[in-house]
Amino acid sequence: MGDSPAAVPMSEGVRVERPAPVGSAAAPATRASPLPSFKRVIPLTDASIAHGGRVLAQFIGPIAIVFSRRAAHDVDDERAYFELLAAHLADPDERAQFFRKVKQRSV
């Protein structure tokens, strides 16, 4: 039938390989991956949406309100929201300044 016990013959000479059982000699050794870094996720609120829109407006004007509403529909947490807003700033210095101003918000 097949050259190896892991091969399953199919019609027309096509073969599909089944994965070898875990622990068998044919199973590849897996390397332990490092633990992912966990960052605190802050939920997106109406206040953070308004704040992000106001800060972005300082750089690009009133169109920032439109961008902030669109971004708010696409994400669920503040970090991702502010990243989407910052993507509208081409200048890396302005982007850095945007993030500094966003963090200065009084809670």
Task: Report on this structure.
The protein has a two-stranded antiparallel ribbon. The protein is mainly alpha-helical and about 110 residues long. Strand 1 (about 5-10) and strand 2 form a beta hairpin. The protein has a domain at about 60-105. It contains four helices and two strands. Helices cover about 45% and strands about 5% of the residues.
Short description:
By secondary structure, this protein is mainly alpha-helical. It has helices at 46-60, 63-74, 78-86, 92-103, and strands at residues 7-9, 15-17.
Keyword list:
2 strands; 6% strand; 107 residues; 4 helices
Whole-number mean pLDDT: 78
- How helical, in percent, are the residues? 40-55%
Task: Please give the count of helices.
Answer: 4
Biggest sheet: strand arrangement: 1-2
Proportion of beta-strand residues: 5-15%
How would you characterize the largest beta sheet?
Answer: 2 strands, antiparallel
Q: From the alpha carbons, calculate the radius of gyration and give it in angstroms.
A: 25 Å
Give the overall shape: globular
**What is the distance, rounded to the nearest whole angstrom, between the alpha carbons of the first and last residues?**
70 Å
Specify the structural class. mainly alpha
Sketch the topology as an H/E string, one letter per element. Answer: EEHHHH
By DSSP, the count of extended strands is 2
Question: Unreliable segments (pLDDT under 50, ≥5 consecutive)?
Answer: 7-11
